[in-house]
TrEMBL record:
One Pfam family matching this protein: Phage_portal
Database matches in InterPro entries: PBSX_Proteobac (IPR030935), Phage/GTA_portal (IPR006944), Phage_portal_PBSX (IPR006430)
Superkingdom of the organism of origin: Bacteria
Originating organism: Pseudacidovorax intermedius
This protein's name: PBSX family phage portal protein
Length: 359
């Protein structure tokens, strides 16, 4: 009882003290300071995403490190982007397979080496063949040097193989042939034609990864459970929390039952944070990014096994394949035959392209 009186007495003293302070302020004529309003709070979700992971506009030349020239773009990034979206990798494989199917093997250049060499050129815009020579000076065979780790030196015909930071191998002068795509800013290394479609490739990948994580998450972290019902104890709230946690992962989208006799309808609210299922436009993003990738590779969609959405389809597949060969594969064949001029003999040659007759 004494403790209760002491608390009440302390409260009354505090109230009377506040009253005297306000009375003194009124007598002195000083205006009472108004309560300052709460400051607005702004925050963002997640970290900022860089616009370009390859820094496409940051380079003006290939940097020379004292031994060799560094590529203008990170080659490991292009290697990872190769498998980022199915339409990107499938378009490159289609060109590679057509070239390999028409290639006529040579004693110096096998079909497997040619296939790997072509894949390097289509992905990195650079492809390298090493021509080791015997003691008599004749070429033994043509070997592929991985474009991911091959670097060009300052001197003419000087090349290095750098698989890691502490490992390097210098090829014999004049023993490496470099096939490169043209670039506007430098002429040391080539750059692939599809660079303009990399953003569409990453967008396609991001949409797929987001939707996959969305389904794996289960509860999707897309709502706030607001519980104010006094009929539910803290034990009931913990049990409900545990049931929600167990609804995530495999076997998700489960139904939950909450038994609360005498509870109020407004005692349990489900407040959605974002309706990601209805607003992510998954199919629209996938289709738009696919069209951009196919436009950069100039591959007819019918040749990639894409199912048309319209009743008319993609037209005659045979005519599309013939036009695709004349516009894309034939020029690539001419580019690849440049090694013949460098070596002095015809090691790259192709059979004529013929479509199978309709049954």
């Amino acid at each position: 009882m004494s403790k209760r009186r002491a608390r009440h007495g302390s409260a009354s003293i505090t109230s009377s003290s506040a009253a005297r302070v306000l009375s003194a302020a009124a007598e002195s004529g000083a205006p009472a300071e108004p309560a300052s309003p709460a400051a607005p709070v702004a925050f963002t979700f997640g970290d900022p995403e860089p616009v370009s992971r390859l820094r496409l506009m940051d380079y003006v030349e290939a940097m020379f490190n004292g031994r060799w020239y560094e590529p203008p773009l990170p080659l490991d990034g292009m290697a990872r982007a190769f498998r980022a979206a199915p339409h990107h990798s499938s378009s490159i494989y289609l060109k590679r397979n057509l070239l390999v199917s028409l290639f006529q093997p040579h004693p110096l250049l096998s079909r497997s080496t040619f296939a790997a060499w072509v894949l390097d050129f289509l992905i990195f815009g650079n492809a390298y063949l090493e021509a080791p020579r015997s003691m008599m000076g004749s070429v033994l065979e043509l070997r592929r040097s991985l474009a991911l780790y091959t670097r060009r030196g300052k001197e003419e015909g000087q090349f290095f193989f750098v698989p890691s930071y502490q490992q390097e191998h210098e090829f014999a002068r004049g023993s490496v042939f470099q096939l490169q795509e043209d670039d506007l800013a430098q002429e040391v290394y080539g750059l692939p034609e599809y660079l303009s479609a990399l953003h569409a490739t990453w967008l396609n990948e991001a949409a797929t990864v987001f939707r996959r994580r969305y389904y794996e998450n289960g509860s999707h972290a897309g709502f706030i459970l607001y519980l104010t019902d006094t009929q539910l104890s803290s034990t009931d709230a913990d049990a409900l929390k545990e049931a929600l946690k167990k609804s995530k992962g495999p076997g998700n989208f489960r139904n939950l039952c909450l038994y609360a006799p005498g509870g109020k309808p407004e005692g349990l609210k489900l407040i959605p944070v974002s309706e990601v299922a209805a607003k992510d436009d998954f199919l629209s993003i996938k289709n738009a990014s696919r069209d951009d990738v196919l436009a950069a590779h100039r591959v007819p969609p019918g040749l990639l096994g894409i199912i048309p959405n319209n009743t008319g389809g993609f037209g005659n597949a045979g005519e599309a394949a013939q036009i695709f060969f004349q516009n894309e594969i034939a020029p690539l064949q001419q580019r690849l035959m440049a090694v013949n001029d460098w070596l002095g003999q015809e090691v790259v040659r192709f059979a004529p392209y013929e479509l199978p007759a309709a049954a």
